[in-house]
Design brief:
The structure holds two protein chains of two kinds.
Chain A (H helix, E strand, L loop, with lengths): L6 H16 L2 H38 L15 H10 L11 H17 L18 H11 L1 H10 L3 H32 L4 H7 L13 H14 L11 H4 L9 H26 L11 H5 L11 H21 L5 H28 L11
Chain B lengths: L1 H23 L3 H21 L3 H25 L4 H37 L14 H9 L4 H22 L11 H6 L2 H4 L12
Classes of the chains: A mainly alpha, B mainly alpha.
């Protein structure tokens, strides 16, 4: 060890570890958890930053443009340039607005989007809080995020903002029900609310993923996720051709950055949730292909890990952008119809089908002991 | 255990303060936001006694759905605070009476009942790996299944009743037939006319 790594580094590491083990147990736990949170947070924020770049490149290519290519190599510095531009802009607070709620609204929309990462397992051991009710926790937090939007719309004292907030609130409440019902199917199939157990229940390659037996629920969940994040084609909350920018019309500078961050953090979250619930999370799609293990440089393909989760997340992010480039905005009454009259009956029907399949021991969950 | 008590009193204090805020604030939207805070604090109190299912469901159902609709309605209505204030003064004796009754019940329940049993240190902690979601489900769908189903039917009844009360048939109402809209093909709406090029006059 001494001849590979310089002695002073070894000494420093020993010194830090020595201090660490001197700490009381609760402080050690606190230190480790804080670092875990910090790593996840930085990872998510970097994902958000580069997904804006990814979005502009994807949509640019789909519209036969190049997309950002000026800042840094391949335009990779673009997100940072955008962030710095927005950070240095003035935050304007409308004179007749409700000051406190106006300022707190962007924070209320960002915090749930980040707090949800506490229960998301990134691989088989890295999860900040391995709690039993993880799925419920995620549902609760995604439903709390709507407060930021509603309060922003009301507090800015602007008609456009209020209209956007109203649309968004009705839409999110409607699609939340379909989303919850779709997750009922997932928890029936896995027999657990713990996200780690849900991923483990899907191990054994892509034919064991819940995508196969729960395909209708997967579609419902994904589209409901699209509607919950207010993304195109469900972006009536900010529909720029009708109500300028919807609920964040009056926001500028840092306050706007927070809304922007929240929207993209929610997209990353929904993509990751879809990957975990229906595509086996960090599990490898080629699990059990033992012949791949014989080739040393391909062995990583069959092992599970963070990179699989990341790949699946990126695929869903790509679909987000693809849909945005493809579809025109939904008409408002049709959004409501889709949520209440199509998705909810579909999910309830499929839950019944699943119950019947479990009862007659058909399918992957026949061993659940119903 | 000390930390536990400190957290309990801290969150209870915030909860009581927020509950006062619901009643005392002049702006109805502020009242709803105080109510959100109150629910969050009571969810935390439930987490402190390891009832994580109830805590999360409280946030999911009340904060995530019921209060969003509350906020929705309150934002649309123009609530006259002064009139509401006057009615508060009128109903104050009744309110105080109900509050006293509740205090008496709580004292009876917590203090008088727990004294003979000698319970002083709260609930017993549950064993490792105990999932109270599973425990609740096991009881709810076996022992209390009839009560559970009756509650569900009552809720359904309330939904149907509310919809019937607000459903009005107005003359001249335009309704879209979605199936018809979806079934439309280009040839129903579009006619391609072939004609010879005209000479420039």
């Amino acid at each position: 060890m001494g001849d590979v790594v310089p002695q002073f580094i070894v000494n420093t590491v020993d010194w830090i570890l020595g201090i660490f083990y001197l700490l009381p147990e609760w402080l050690q736990y606190l230190t480790i958890t804080t670092w875990k949170i910090l790593f996840v947070l930085i990872g998510v924020i970097l994902c958000v930053a580069f997904s804006t770049y990814f979005e502009r490149k994807v949509i640019g290519r789909m519209q036969a443009r190049i997309g950002p290519n000026r800042v840094g190599p391949l335009g990779l510095g673009q997100p940072f340039a955008d962030v710095f531009k927005l950070l240095f802009k003035e935050v304007i607070i409308p004179a007749k607005s409700n000051r406190f709620l106006f300022i707190i609204a962007p924070m209320l929309s960002l915090v749930p989007a980040l707090a949800a990462w506490a229960v998301i397992p990134l691989n088989d051991w890295y999860v900040i809080a391995d709690i039993n009710a993880g799925l419920l926790f995620l549902l609760a937090l995604t439903s709390v995020g709507v407060y930021g939007v509603i309060l922003a719309g009301w507090a800015s004292n602007s008609k456009y903002a209020l209209l956007g907030a109203m649309r968004s609130a009705a839409q999110i409440v409607a699609y939340e029900i379909a989303m919850g019902f779709a997750l009922v199917g997932v928890l029936m199939a896995s027999g657990s609310l713990n996200l780690g157990d849900i991923v483990n229940a899907q191990s054994g390659g892509f034919s064991h993923w819940f995508l196969v037996p729960l395909f209708p629920l997967f579609v419902v969940f994904w589209i409901a996720g699209l509607a919950e994040t207010n993304r195109a084609p469900f972006d009536v909350a900010e529909g720029e051709s009708e109500i300028v920018a919807g609920f964040h019309v009056e926001y500028s500078g840092v306050a706007f950055v927070l809304f922007f961050l929240a929207e993209y953090a929610n997209m990353v979250l929904i993509s990751t949730m879809t990957a975990i619930f229906f595509l086996g999370g960090w599990a490898s799609p080629f699990e059990g292909w033992t012949f791949l293990n014989d080739i040393t440089w391909l062995a990583w393909l069959t092992a599970g890990g963070l990179y699989w989760l990341f790949v699946k997340m990126c695929a869903f992010m790509y679909i987000f952008f693809w849909l945005r480039a493809t579809f025109p905005r939904y008409r408002y009454d049709q959004i409501m119809r889709l949520g209440w009259k199509v998705f909810i009956p579909v999910t309830i029907f499929w839950i019944a089908v699943e119950g019947a399949m479990a009862w007659f021991h058909i399918g992957p969950w026949s061993g659940l002991g119903v | 255990m000390l930390l536990h008590s400190i957290l309990f009193y801290l969150f209870s204090a915030i909860m009581l303060g927020a509950a006062m805020g619901v009643v005392l604030s002049r702006n109805p939207v502020h009242s709803v936001m105080f109510l959100v805070l109150t629910f969050f604090q009571s969810a935390i109190l439930w987490l402190l006694i390891e009832a994580e299912f109830l805590a999360i469901v409280l946030v999911l159902v009340y904060v995530g759905a019921v209060l969003v609709l509350f906020l929705f309605v309150v934002m649309m209505l123009d609530v006259n605070i002064e009139a509401a204030k006057r009615s508060v003064a009128r109903f104050a004796p009744l309110g105080i009476g109900i509050a006293l009754l509740m205090v008496v019940q709580l004292v009876q329940l917590i203090w008088l009942r727990s004294r003979p049993a000698g319970i002083t240190s709260g609930f017993a902690t549950s064993p490792e790996g105990y999932s109270n979601t599973k425990a609740l489900g096991a009881v709810l769908y076996t022992e209390h299944v009839y009560a559970f189903e009756i509650a569900a039917v009552i809720l359904l009844l309330a939904i149907v009743a509310a919809i019937t009360l607000t459903l009005r048939k107005r003359p001249g109402l335009k309704v879209q037939n979605i199936a018809e809209q979806v079934a439309v093909r280009a040839k129903d709406r579009l006619r391609v006319i072939k004609m010879d090029a005209e000479k420039k006059t």
